[in-house]
Amino acid sequence: MDERPIGLMDSGLGGLSVMRVLHQQLPKESLVFVGDQGHFPYGTKSQDELQHLVLNIGHFLVEQDIKMMIVACNTATGAALPLLQQTLPVPVIGVIEPGAIAAVHHHLKTVGVIGTASTIKKGAYPATIHRLAPQMTVYSHAAQEMVPIVEHGLTGTPQAQETVNAALQFFDQHPVDGLILGCTHFPFLAPEIRQKMGPNVRLIDPAYETIKQAQATLTAQELLADQDAGTVKLYTTGDRADLVTGAQQWLAGQFTSCDHVDL
Ligand code: DGL
């Protein structure tokens, strides 16, 4: 048994979509989250810049005495997962391979992937899917413009629906059976995405498979916590009030503390 926290990071509020699943499924675990709002957005940055930022956050989380890190950001996973795994003294899990595995489990013929400009350019989703299921057709499409809609608290507005409709127009010509939400901000736009894609397209949120993998690793290494309820500590490199507002909305206010940190 190990009561040390699990560390998570994202460029902003997207990571909370992974955290809410983690908190639901493993409520005894304590969590420490860093939202790098001071450097938002990640999706338009170079691989070098991303590696520098993400590694810095990884070191901060290790200083918080974490027992595992979950990279709750597709862009950061694509740019820095192997680097983090080689450098940090704890197990590190990303979201891309779990998202690809989830798509393969659903036995879809044709799957779409939406993500940031960086994630789509990097091509890790199609590469991983084709390694697991060479016959599957994958259509990847960048939807960077959907990210600030979530970050700026505009979900549920006509502007959100218009942005999603325009960003996903690509799929009018490229029909799919399923769509991987390959950016952790996108599950918060699920109603708008569902409205655009229609009821027959399966929306795949990689968070569920990611947490399954995290649970398997914690179990195998005897690292699971066994306490009444874990604490949830939030840090932002940006404006504390923005993360508080996001966490009230997306974590139903279930957090212990929220502080600014300069990284
Ligand atoms: N939430 C992030 C992802 O999963 C990045 C969004 C951004 O900062 O561009 O890729």
Comma- or semicolon-separated keywords:
alpha/beta
Question: What does this entry look like structurally?
Answer:
This protein is α/β, with parallel strands linked by helices. Helices cover 45% and strands 17% of the residues. It has helices spanning 15-25, 47-63, 74-87, 96-105, 117-122, 124-132, 147-151, 158-167, 170-173, 190-197, 207-220, 240-250; strands spanning 6-10, 31-35, 68-71, 92-93, 110-115, 137-142, 178-181, 202-204, 232-236, 257-260. It has a 6-stranded parallel beta sheet, with helices on both faces. Strands 6-5-7-8 form a 4-stranded parallel beta sheet, with helices on both faces. Helix 10 (190-197) links the parallel strand 7 (178-181) and strand 8. The structure holds D-glutamic acid. D-glutamic acid (DGL) binds at residues 10-12, 14, 40-43, 73-75, 115-116, 119, 147, 183-185.
What's this entry about, in short?
The protein has about 260 residues and is α/β, with parallel strands linked by helices.
For the sheet with most strands, the description reads: 6 strands, parallel
Bound molecules: D-glutamic acid
Broad shape = globular
Total strands: 10
Order of helices and strands: EHEHEHEHEHHEHHHEHEHEHE
Strand order of the largest sheet: 4-3-1-2-9-10
Layout of strands and helices, then pairs:
Elements: E1 6-10, H1 15-25, E2 31-35, H2 47-63, E3 68-71, H3 74-87, E4 92-93, H4 96-105, E5 110-115, H5 117-122, H6 124-132, E6 137-142, H7 147-151, H8 158-167, H9 170-173, E7 178-181, H10 190-197, E8 202-204, H11 207-220, E9 232-236, H12 240-250, E10 257-260
Parallel strand pairs: 1-2, 1-3, 2-9, 3-4, 5-6, 5-7, 7-8, 9-10
The chain binds D-glutamic acid.
